[in-house]
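Quick start: what a row looks like.
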Amino acid sequence: MLSGSHALSASLEAGLELGIENTTMKKAMSNAALFSIVPSLPIVVMLTVLTVNLEQYFPWLRLSVVGFTAYENMAANIVAKASGLAGIADPGFDLPIVTMVMWVMSVGIIWGIVFNIFFMKSLDRFSKKAKASNNTFIPVLSSALFIGMLSLMSSPYITNAANSSTSGGKRRARHDENR
């Protein structure tokens, strides 16, 4: 907080020395505050959701180091549903399920890091060649891959929304019978 306040006051002084109007500086400060706080809100929400069943340390470690909120939620829900629960908010979360969630989250996300270790150099060379040739296909490919990723991650929630409340009780009953 102290360093942020010092940086703010130094920036205001520098802006006044450059002759920037107060309204412009206030608008820049509000935009900076907005774009600093708003992107972290989904992380805080997912941290709160995951903390309910996974305690506080593992979700904090995941989301602060290598995690991705949509992936962490999806992995936890997949494990919960595979274990016979309705989802991550099901009160039947016990230690074996928590352990499975930790393993799935850790093993599932490691492949991006491994891929980067082995293929990042060749990917970088390809990217430099594509930029040098002014190829218009690369932005289209990047956009298509991004839309495909979003579709893949959101489709289970969109297509199965009506069935999740009716089949959750059956799965929960089977899980309770197996205990």
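That is the whole record. The chain has one domain: 42-178. The chain has eight helices and no strands.
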